Amino acid sequence: MPAASRPPSRHTVTTTTPSSRTRAAVERASRPLLTRLSGGHRAIPFLLVLALMVAGVFVGGVPGALLVLVVVLFIGWLLYLGWPALTTAERMGRFAVLAVAVAVGVVQLFPRG
Q1: pLDDT tens digits, the chain, 113 residues: what are they?
Q2: What is the CA radius of gyration of the chain?
Q3: Which of 9, 19, 98, 112 is most buried as measured by Cβ atoms within 10 A of its Cβ?
């Protein structure tokens, strides 16, 4: 298919504004940790997030909310870094995961009954 008629790649950045200095600084600071994460087994970050969420739910209270907060910060960080390359559906899916994690943390801090 000729390049002119080819649909844009789903990883094409569609913004027309240049990357901000803040984004560039965050990406630069994140590179070493992302390199370490990508060098290991792909399941490790998932299992770490799962373990922290399960521990946060079972521990409860402020300590449990702090464990969930670590997960929220990690997911938020990954969402921020990946945002330009994500489609709208992918953004909404990842944002939904972040919202569920925030909701779990709030419930841990303010349980009913």
Answers
A1: 555 554 555 544 444 455 789 999 999 999 999 889 888 888 999 999 999 999 999 998 899 999 999 999 999 999 999 999 999 999 999 999 999 999 999 998 988 86
A2: 18
A3: 98
One-letter identity of residue 18: P
Is residue 108 within 8 A of residue 57, CB to CB? The reply is yes
In contact, 60 and 111? CB cutoff 8 Å: yes
Give the separation between CA 69 and CA 92, rounded to whole angstroms: 20
Tokens of 25: 């600084």
Distance CA 26, CA 80 (A): 9
Distance CA 60, CA 50 (A): 15
| H-state helical runs in 40-87 | 43-59, 61-82
